[in-house]
Write a structure and sequence with these properties.
The structure holds 2 protein chains of 2 kinds. Helices cover 53% and strands 9% of the residues of chain A. Chain A is built from 26 helices and 10 strands. In chain A, helix 1 packs antiparallel against helix 7, helix 4 crosses helix 7 and helix 11 packs across helix 25. The longest helix of chain A is centred in the middle third of the chain and has 18 residues. Chain A is globular and about 70 Å long. By secondary structure, chain B is α+β, with helices and mostly antiparallel strands. Chain B is built from 16 helices and 18 strands. In chain B, helix 8 packs across helix 10. Chain B is globular. The C terminus of chain B is likely disordered. The chains are: A alpha/beta, B alpha+beta. At the A-B interface, helix 2, helix 4 and helix 5 of A face helix 2, helix 12 and helix 16 of B.
Chain lengths: 465, 489
């Protein structure tokens, strides 16, 4: 065995949870839920297969060679296998442990390394840099540079998928939730906690049903800041007081999925502290990918030395809710703009966010919120539970599988005849926008976040207390 | 590892993409859903047509390479473990539904077709294909036919073997055989169709099949009967049959099974009860309602303490779905779950359940029992840990005694999983010396070079074997040691 493989094999033996490996009884029930198995039909590209490969390495039956690594990379981490698993194998933990060992032992190829380092360490954790990118993007879009780049053919210098992704980018201003909120003249007050943490507090409309900490997210707050604004407007309308702790940071999900566990834990610690200061009943997430990791902070921090932090992590995880859960209950029902008797005017379909569905186990709530609207014709998307191929930075690192999944997804979307694809996660939203570009359907179909869709369909009184 | 020239020939048949022998592929086709067994193949091939299968078999026949046919790898008898290495032929590319013939009420398909997909396609046309093994979301029709799969509807509708009308198969010399047809009656010579059904890949590779369909029952209704006494539940089963009622499903679960299934499915199963029967009837509205009324009376008279009749079809479907996940849900209790399918004449159900309990106690092992009580097919399931050889040994002893008990009651060692590796040591108990001799002569006549799935069906030992060393490569490398390690660690 070559020495890199040997080191990785040793490290996998130490990191992989042997009980979980043994608990997989190889019934195979996970396979029809796995996007990469559906696409390839290969045992190795299924959860049962990947677990067997991990176990084979631990048992010394196989070297963790290049093909082993690329098979682990091919996994989207969508975790659709977990609800399908009758034996409750924690596949998500196994794949993260494997990736952590790989990340620690063996360098990735240069382009992948650049993408990983740029995004994971250089950008996501730094709010200032993200905003700067936002401002730059805003300049790029507003100054005519975007128009120039597209018309001059400069974009053609980039690979196809980056060209299409660029077109899918939303218009951004560089302003985050707090700036947009205060610039809009909407009501809020600033508070400082005993230990000096700064909070932005937005009052509930009408009687207060609870106090919610708003997790604004990193990409979300730059690329989709207006969605964050709509999220807060909806939560207010449903009777929540909203608190935005200023010290909150990126959730760390992309780091955890890429095997950078130390970074993920550091970010988690910061968020647990920031929201602990805010003294809230719930923590609202409007991004399935973030919400899922927030919901698993208890697991992420389970080996933490600091017992108080460990307990705080458990409490934090219990408080995390998707906005669709909060709006259903305990939030007050929202009032549709359109009358009960209205004709079904908008045909809508819903693409599940994998982590919202498979980890947070939320699938009915977003659908119910839309079905309750008299003017909305909600058509179920065939394969809505199958990943769209976005999966964090997967669409940048595994472009071929990602686009295959996306193109199949768009075929199903077209079959519904829907004009709007609603999603619950920024990654999925960008991917669906990209899919619309690829399918050449910019005129017929648009992709929107659930919060933006609902905000346009229900009565919201934005006045103060 | 196959010789370069053979690898090239195989790759030429299917195209390079569909022949694989890298470590990752070999590992990922070294197991199926059977606990404790794993052995490495020498190559994996994915044919796209019957002609390709024939060409592959001709190459293997010439070079005496073992051929192991595989569908989804969801069987529980070790039927697709490449005990002596060889070539795994994965049939899942050949998954076309070729025809649903509404005039003759038949369907014809390639054998790699997924069972659940087949059910959905058939039911969309208003027809019905009853065999529904618990693994139907992943398994293939070819696998069902090769191992004689059953399911929850055996009592009223029979099993796979009762539906196969014709087959296309590739024989060990590469020739292509067609048997039967869209015929209800066919008395032309030996019944080769029936011979190949349940042959477990030891005689031929099944490539196409024609099965019979029946009209889809218009109405179905499910009920649940709860017992605080195990024998009362078993008695109910006997009484239902004695009253000449044939529910389409009559499933039994004991308390440990109920608890884990509820934990998994969360549908409000009675976890404090000692046993539960899930009963479903289908047919016309009048017939179903009448039968359900009668069933209610029988359950109560036999000692049921609680009855729940599903209010909606969805509620009924949920109960059956929960029962379908019983096996896998049981595996939450302990790391390793060994499930058997000893079957007795249905009048003996109560005796058999008690016998299983006695044997479990004797060997100090945990055995949950659930199963298709209506057709006498129980699933005594042992929860154990593959890493504890001493306990595994006791489990094996217990199962040997369970098989013995089943046969003593006029039953069989396997109702629906097939023989494969797991039951091979017990086959002679069931079919006798003359039976084994006849089966072996058939095998030798059709497959003289023993290339079709060697090591299955026939075994010398009486005791259940935990692992089998690879004879071919032993000593050349450490593969056999590694196989052993993975099987017993």
């Amino acid at each position: 065995m070559n020495s890199t493989h040997e080191k990785l094999a040793q490290s996998l033996k130490l990191t992989l949870d042997e009980d979980q490996l043994t608990n997989c009884m190889r019934c195979g029930f996970c396979q029809t839920a796995c996007p990469t198995f559906i696409e390839t039909g290969l045992e190795a590209a299924s959860p049962r297969g990947r677990i067997a490969l991990m176990k084979a390495v631990v048992d010394g039956l196989m070297e963790p060679d290049e093909s082993f690594r690329s098979q682990m990379d091919l996994c989207l981490g969508c975790r659709a296998c977990e609800p399908a698993c009758p034996s409750d194998v924690k596949y998500g933990q196994l794949i993260e442990q494997t990736r952590a060992a790989i990340a620690a032992e063996k360098p990735y190829s240069l382009p992948v390394r650049v993408v990983r380092k740029t995004f994971l360490q250089g950008i996501f954790p730094h709010r200032g840099r993200l905003k700067l990118i936002g401002k730059t993007l805003s300049f790029y879009q507003k100054s005519g540079l975007q128009k120039f780049a597209r018309s001059s053919g400069a974009m053609k210098l980039f690979p196809d998928h980056l060209q299409q992704l660029e077109k899918a980018l939303p218009d951004v201003t560089g302003d985050g939730l707090e700036e947009l909120w205060s610039k809009a003249g909407l009501p809020y007050r600033r508070e400082t906690t005993g230990s000096g943490s700064k909070l932005m507090v937005i009052p509930a409309s009408g009687a207060k049903v609870g106090r919610v900490g708003m997790f604004r997210g990193c990409i979300m707050d730059v690329m989709f800041a207006s969605t964050n604004v709509n999220t807060v407007r909806l939560l207010r309308q449903a009777g929540f007081e909203i608190v935005i702790p200023e010290e909150q940071v990126c959730c760390g999900a992309l780091h955890a999925h890429a095997g950078e566990m130390d970074d993920a834990k550091q970010l988690a610690g910061q968020n647990i502290w920031a929201f602990g200061e805010a003294n809230v009943d719930y923590i609202a997430s409007n991004a399935g990918g973030c919400g899922a990791l927030l919901k698993e902070y208890d697991h992420l921090m389970h080996a933490e030395q600091d017992k108080r932090l460990q307990l705080a992590a458990i409490r934090f995880a219990e408080q995390v809710k998707d906005i669709s859960e909060l709006l259903n209950s305990p939030g007050r029902p929202l009032t549709p703009i359109q009358a009960e008797s209205a004709n079904k005017t908008v045909k809508v379909t819903y693409q599940d966010s994998c982590h919202l569905r498979n980890v947070m186990r939320v699938q009915g709530e977003p659908r119910q919120l839309m079905q309750q609207l008299p003017g909305v014709d909600m058509c179920e998307l065939q394969g809505a539970e199958v990943c769209c191929g976005s999966a964090g930075i997967y669409n940048l690192t595994q472009t071929e599988m990602s686009t295959t999944l996306l193109d199949h997804k768009m075929e199903h979307v077209e079959a519904t005849g829907a004009e709007v694809i609603v999603t619950s996660n920024p990654g999925c939203l960008l991917q669906m926008k990209w899919g619309i570009e690829r399918a050449g359907k910019q005129r017929g179909i648009k992709a929107v976040h659930l919060a933006d869709f609902l905000a346009a369909q229900v009565r919201i009184e934005d006045v103060g207390e | 590892m196959l010789e370069t020239v053979i690898r090239e020939q195989l790759a030429a048949v299917v195209g390079g993409k569909w022949f694989k022998d890298d470590p990752e592929s070999l590992v990922s086709y070294s197991y199926d859903a059977t606990p404790l067994y794993q052995a490495m193949p020498d190559g994996v091939i994915f044919p796209g047509s019957t002609q390709e299968v024939s060409d592959i078999v001709k190459i293997c026949s010439k070079h005496r390479i073992s051929v192991i046919t595989r569908g989804a790898g969801s069987n529980l008898c070790g039927g697709t473990i490449p005990l002596q290495g060889g070539l795994i032929v994965v049939m899942t590319r050949m998954n076309k539904l070729l025809e649903i013939d509404a005039d003759n009420l038949t369907a014809t398909f390639q054998t790699g077709l997924n069972t659940k997909q087949f059910h959905l396609s058939v039911e969309r046309t208003g027809l019905f294909y009853p065999p529904d093994p618990s693994s139907m979301i992943i398994c293939t029709m070819g696998g069902n036919i090769a191992l004689g799969a059953g399911g929850l509807r055996g009592l009223k509708y029979g099993t796979t073997k009762d539906y196969v009308l014709g087959l296309e198969a590739v024989l060990p010399d590469g020739s292509i055989l067609r048997t039967g047809g869209k015929l209800v009656k066919d008395a032309a010579g030996y019944d080769l169709t029936r011979l190949l059904v349940g042959s477990g890949g030891t005689l031929a590779i099944l490539t196409e099949a024609t099965v019979k369909l029946i009209p889809k029952p218009s109405y179905r209704k499910a009920m649940v009967a709860v017992y605080d006494d195990l024998q009362a539940a078993a008695r109910t089963v006997s009484n239902i049959i004695a009253n000449h009622i044939f529910p389409c499903t009559l499933e039994f679960m004991d308390q440990p099974t109920l608890q884990v299934v509820e934990d998994f499915a969360k549908i409000g199963l009675p976890v404090h009860a000692k046993a539960m029967l899930a009963i479903e009837q289908d047919g016309s509205v009048e017939d179903v309602e009448r039968d359900l009324k009668k069933l209610e009376e029988i359950c109560l008279a036999s000692g049921a303490v609680q009855l729940n009749i599903a209010k909606t079809p969805e509620e009924g479907a949920k109960v059956m779905e929960a029962r379908r996940s019983a096996l896998a849900a049981l595996s939450r209790l302990r790391p390793t779950t060994i499930l058997e399918d000893a079957t007795v004449p249905r009048s003996k159900i109560a005796d058999m359940v008690l016998e299983v309990q006695r044997i479990a106690q004797k060997y100090d092992v945990q055995i949950c029992t659930f199963g298709h009580a209506g057709d006498g097919n129980l699933h005594p399931t042992a929860m154990t840990d593959a890493r504890d050889p001493e306990e595994i040994h006791r489990v094996e002893e217990a199962f040997a005694e369970i098989f013995e008990a089943a046969i003593a009651m006029g039953g069989t060692i396997t109702g629906e999983h097939g023989v494969g590796i797991v039951k091979a040591p017990y086959l002679e108990w069931k079919v006798g010396e003359a039976g084994i001799r006849m089966m072996k002569s058939i095998k030798d006549a059709i497959d003289p070079h023993q290339i079709m799935n060697p090591g299955k069906l026939f075994a010398e030992t009486r005791k259940r074997i935990v692992f089998q060393e690879r004879t071919e490569q032993a000593g050349r490398d450490s593969a056999s040691d590694q196989d052993r390690k993975i099987e017993t660690s």
